[in-house]
């Protein structure tokens, strides 16, 4: 005895009546999207931690009067002494937090709500701008630490505080990679929208 029902392509046929079977949400999160968001969040967190642990003490010879010998003074360089470093730290913490939140929203949304997807793309662009601006500001001040500035009478600092400068440079590079990952996310989303329309 044959079955009365034939199943094919989500449609159940029973004699002359046809019924559409609702399929569970078959939209999937693109794997690269979630992985890139987690990577960007992790890199931002690592950059913030590397910078937050940046501190060095060195003994510097200071000449008060040219005819007297130099006085050795211990000097401590801390990351929060520079406003650009504070901006850099806060920008990376914001980017890390956003990366985690956008990963959760991406999993929850699964590209079903265009409004949420559009909002995520806009905030991805904001993170790119925020991270690139913080990297640029900190790089400019860091370059003065390496080179000095004769017009402002700023001396080189990184020849004395080598570890401090190296750790700050490492944080800049890691944050630069994180901002590039957010930028890659934006490009991939634009390409995805272009394919749809």
Automatic annotation (TrEMBL):
Keywords: Cell membrane, Membrane, Transmembrane, Transmembrane helix
GO cellular component, one term: plasma membrane
Major location category of this protein: membrane
Residue ranges constituting the Casparian strip membrane protein domain according to the UniProt record: 27-179
Protein's membrane topology: Multi-pass membrane protein
Compartments reported by the entry: Cell membrane
UniProt superkingdom: Eukaryota
One Pfam short name: CASP_dom
Transmembrane segments: 34-53, 86-107, 119-146, 166-188
PANTHER family noted in UniProt: CASP-LIKE PROTEIN 1U1 (PTHR36488:SF8)
Subunit structure and binding partners: Homodimer and heterodimers.
Family, similarity comment: Belongs to the Casparian strip membrane proteins (CASP) family.
Protein name: CASP-like protein
């Amino acid at each position: 005895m044959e079955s009365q029902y034939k199943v094919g392509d989500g449609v159940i046929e029973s004699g002359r009546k046809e019924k559409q079977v609702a399929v569970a949400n078959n939209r999937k999160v693109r794997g690269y999207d979630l992985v890139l968001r987690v990577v960007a969040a992790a890199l931002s967190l690592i950059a913030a931690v590397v910078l937050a642990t940046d501190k060095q003490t060195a003994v510097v010879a200071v000449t008060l009067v040219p005819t007297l010998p130099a006085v050795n003074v211990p000097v401590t360089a801390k990351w929060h002494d520079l406003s650009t470093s504070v901006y850099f730290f806060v920008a990376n913490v914001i980017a890390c937090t956003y990366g985690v939140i956008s990963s959760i929203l991406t999993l929850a949304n699964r590209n079903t709500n265009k409004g949420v997807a559009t909002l995520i793309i806009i905030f991805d662009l904001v993170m790119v701008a925020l991270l690139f601006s913080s990297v640029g500001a900190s790089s400019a001040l860091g370059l003065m630490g390496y080179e000095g500035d004769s017009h402002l009478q700023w001396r080189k600092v990184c020849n004395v505080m080598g570890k401090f400068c190296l750790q700050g440079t490492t944080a800049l590079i890691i944050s630069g990679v994180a901002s590039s990952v957010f930028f890659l996310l934006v490009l991939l989303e634009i390409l995805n929208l272009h394919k749809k329309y």
